[in-house]
Specification:
Blueprint (H helix, E strand, L loop, with lengths): L12 E2 L1 E3 L2 E3 L6 E4 L6 E5 L6 H17 L3 H17 L1 H12 L3 H25 L5 E2 L4 E2 L6 E9 L4 E4 L7 H13 L3 E4 L5 H13 L8 E3 L16 E5 L2 H8 L2 H5 L4 E4 L4 E5 L8 H15 L9 E7 L3 H13 L19 H15 L2 E5 L21 E5 L7 H4 L6 E7 L2 H9 L4 E7 L3 H11 L3 E7 L18 E2 L10 E2 L9 E9 H10 L1 E2 L2
Parallel strand pairs: 1-5, 6-24, 9-10, 9-12, 10-11, 12-13, 14-15, 14-19, 15-18, 17-18, 19-20
Antiparallel strand pairs: 2-3, 4-5, 6-8, 7-8, 8-23, 16-17, 21-22
The protein binds NADP nicotinamide-adenine-dinucleotide phosphate (NAP).
NADP nicotinamide-adenine-dinucleotide phosphate binds next to α7.
Length: 532
Amino acid sequence: MQVPNMSARAAESLESYLGGRWVSGEGVETRLYDPVSGDELATVSAKGVDLASALIFARMQGQGGLREMSYAGRAKLVGAVADVLVVNRARYEEIAIANSGNTKTDAAIDIDGGIATLKYYARVGATLGDQRMVLDEKPVRLAKAENYQAVHIMVPRQGVAIHINAFNFPSWGLWEKAAVALVAGMPVLAKPASATALLAHAMVKDVIAASVLPEGALNLLCGSAGNLLALLTCDDVIAFTGSADTAARVRGHPDVVRKSVPVNIEADSINAAVLAPGSAMGSAACDAFLREVVREMTVKAGQKCTAIRRIFVPADQAGAIADALAAKLKTTKVGDPRQEDTRVGPLVTRSQQGAAFDGIRRLASEASILCGGPEPPRLPGIDSAKSAFVAPTLLCVNDAAGAKAVHEVEVFGPAATIVPYRNEQEACALIARGGGSLVASVFADDKDFLLRMVSAIAPAHGRILAVDPAIASAHTGHGIVMPQCNHGGPGRAGAGEELGGAYGLRFYHQRLAVQGSNDLLAALQAKAASLH
Ligand code: NAP
């Protein structure tokens, strides 16, 4: 297929969809680039847009339209959004390649991941049926009187779901949140990260043009958040994905704190992968481990919040594992994602490239660089002064017990560090130094080891992938977020929870206990869909 010349879009200023119309901000806040050529693709600005009116419109029009529908009715809308996106998928891939530097595989994870999550939540919503509230528990007796009981129900919140997204998943980040909020019955105001807003903008434009959602149910803010957080009420919710620093500013915003606006945070994470002791080279566990580490370091050029950053290997095997990983990474093709054989494209911006190089230098103060490093790779036909490439970079800590940076610095790029461990206890203690992570994966031929590790590291994680030979080539991957599973992690990862099937709907509901007579509660139960 002919890839269009995206630089032809250079003059386009991305509008926001607010208050039922497309509106422009003043001037330019951020310029969007092609991270291979450095060409400017578009600009964004939300300066001067009327966010107060936009929020009122969403609360009145959007809420009203969705509230009149059942879960199954809203699920159909979410399915219709997915259908619109499927029709236009080829164009989205071109945008993802141009603005995010994605390879086709990277683009598929973002675009198809978003569409699949919409379709999945359309199914979840359909199972909740024609109800308008959710029964959370079975009734319980509270006193001697047998006809007096309590039940917990959940009702959709009455405000707007504010979705603030990170630059690395302009599609998946948008739809994995919107799918859940819309099925739950809350209108969405999505704010994509400015640097890669082109894809979210194109997708929302298509969905709005297709008129598949009630007016006000889907709103888009292209540009900075401005005074958005100050305008929220206790009926609204914020779901944020991004860096821990911005997360702290969002969570600590004085108006968010004063009005107790619920906030869900998905932040950064120094995720671990662990190889069990005694996993010989060539064993099923070791092969699966090596495959997964290389895949996690290279897919999306390592720009996944779930990517493996710390590679825990038994000390007596560290040399052999390091050699095998470095050999594979050195032959992985880095380059223009438009070339079919490219496996690692650029980072999304030169400022991200600079941050990744800074991070690699910090890691290298306590580790040896085995391949890659903090300099732009020389690539034929690509100007290193305009592009944003980072070569796959493997490090190995010099002193596993004493190293600190490896547990603290998230290099948001194709970089990871080997941490040799002496025994199981030491491995668990070192993993916990990550301060709370989204995901860890453990690879072993021995199920008892897997069971012990899952129990030991569970409190510090939101998800664990435990790979034994039975699923060595059947699992969905360390870094792929499946909508059926919880996404989020404690501590540094933000202490948030997203997705996870019907459980994910909770954030967009008010949960309350209703105390009353058996007859009243039975009537209430008959009106409510059940989560059980
Ligand atoms: P970021 O700089 O923190 O930005 C995230 C979002 O917050 C962007 O939309 C940004 O808008 C917005 N923002 C910035 N300042 C704000 C403020 N004062 N009030 C409200 N919104 C504000 O993060 P990023 O660089 O886009 O993303 C990379 C980070 O995200 C990495 O650390 C990665 O680990 C993390 N991440 C986590 C997950 C997860 O699910 N846990 C997923 C993906 C990424 P502008 O772009 O307009 O500045």
